[in-house]
Amino acid sequence: MKYDVTVIGSGPGGYVAAIRCAQLGMKTAIIEKYDTLGGTCLNVGCIPSKALLDSSEHYHNAKEKFELHGIKLKDLKVDMKQMIKRKGEVVSQTCSGIDFLMKKNKIDVYHGHGSFKSKNEIIITPKSGTAKLIESEKVIIATGSKPICPPSFNYDKKRVITSTEALNIDKVPKKMVVIGGGVIGLELGSVYARLGTEVEVIEYMDRIIAGMDVDCSKELRRALKKLGVKFHLKHMVTSVKGNANSATIKFKKRDTEDEQEIKADYCLVAIGRKAYTDGLGLEKVGINTDDKGRVKVDAHLETEVPGIFAIGDVIQGAMLAHKAEEEGVFVAEYMSGQKPHIDYNLIPGVVYTWPEVAAVGKTEQELKEAGANYKVGKFPFKALGRARASTDTEGMVKIIADAETDEILGVHMVGPRTADMIAEAVVAMEFRASAEDLARMSHAHPTYTEATKEAALDATGKRPLHI
């Protein structure tokens, strides 16, 4: 078979790229190593983790807040197997939706391991049966990433686990240690903390979610400590060992040799991810990778080999599903002769704990280091009527604007539904709005988004209305 374009990998970047290529009239194929489409995000990442986050939040609210609302329950308990079953159904429905989209757009789907024979030839090796060879004028590498787990951590998929296994624990653990205070570790750690697990987080840096604004780190840590999560900041893990029933974690402060030890039901390793480019045969076509397995691309996301492109987690930048999607559309449109554009500064980042954390643009720390002249406006959710009505009063909205022009440079939120609220900030910044522009917009009352308006009012130098 001959194709105009072949996509290797069917995660959000890959399948979206394939759809856009097909929409633009290209004969398109997509290759997926596993039995289901959707990649890490749909199968063992974004979608199943959000399903568990929602389920655990329902239980936590029933246990901690329902009586406050005048709702009394008796014999409340967690049915973990049902929770996992529902998560599986959500995943199945979502992946089936990708199958439908491939058929709708007449994209040929191949299941098997794709690797280069030459720049225009790809070998597809299925789990069983005979390998196939297809030809393709252009290729998009979209094979995503996998969790990092050092050999010294003795990853066994049973007691020493990554996010993949953490999504399928069918009994609430008594204790869990999370190595890594980043997005994945905190999201999954919060799932089990809500269900009653004693959770301890070991983080090498001096704060959690270190890539986000310091105020967001402080607010989220405060909220998670209320949930019962214990933090060991500025600590490094020296060894992890699992047995049939537990895991033992040894760790120490970065600047001492005094070792501590924790025994837990599970040790969740969440210290980051690395590009999944093994076995692609990149060396056969002259494509090099860096020490993290990433592929180098130019401004058009084309590799050093003309006609071969790479998107998503296999290239530099944030490992975000929506970033990969934007890049997939970008490559498809570039290949068809259009002139697409991505502003990486305006791709939002979200942490789906509760309260949620969401941000876009520059952090205050980045602006300080750059010597920028800026001003800051903040507004706490506890001063918001809608937040009090729903008892979601933790967190704040922070808006950073240029001190002279008033243009919004960054928006950082911790609070209820900020994952959805951040879209307003992205729109405003796409159109280079000022803090005053945002402050003068009418926001429905009572809503969580009023916090954005109030923070913008604060940033303009005016007093916010409700504090």
Provide key terms for this protein.
467 residues; alpha/beta; FAD/NAD(P)-binding domain; Enolase-like, domain 1; 3 domains; seven-stranded mixed sheet; 25% strand; globular
Summarize the structure.
By secondary structure, this protein is an alpha/beta fold. It is built from 14 helices and 22 strands. Strand 10, helix 7 and strand 11 form a beta-alpha-beta unit.
What topology emerges from the helices and strands here?
Layout: E1 2-8, H1 12-23, E2 28-32, H2 39-44, H3 46-64, H4 80-104, E3 108-111, E4 113-118, E5 121-125, E6 132-141, E7 145-147, E8 160-161, H5 163-166, E9 175-179, H6 183-194, E10 198-203, H7 214-227, E11 230-233, E12 235-242, E13 247-253, E14 259-264, E15 266-269, E16 273-275, H8 282-285, E17 308-310, H9 321-335, E18 349-351, E19 356-361, H10 364-369, E20 374-380, H11 385-389, E21 396-402, E22 408-415, H12 418-430, H13 435-440, H14 450-459
Parallel strand pairs: 1-2, 1-6, 2-3, 6-17, 8-15, 9-10, 9-15, 10-11
Antiparallel strand pairs: 4-5, 5-6, 7-16, 12-13, 13-14, 18-19, 19-22, 20-21, 21-22
Description:
The chain has 3 domains: 2-147 and 274-344, FAD/NAD(P)-binding domain, CATH 3.50.50; 151-271, 3-Layer(bba) Sandwich (FAD/NAD(P)-binding domain), CATH 3.50.50; 355-459, Enolase-like, domain 1, CATH 3.30.390.30. β13 (247-253) and β14 (259-264) form a beta hairpin. It is 32% helix and 25% strand. With 467 residues, it is an alpha/beta fold. It starts with a strand and ends in an 8-residue tail after the last helix.
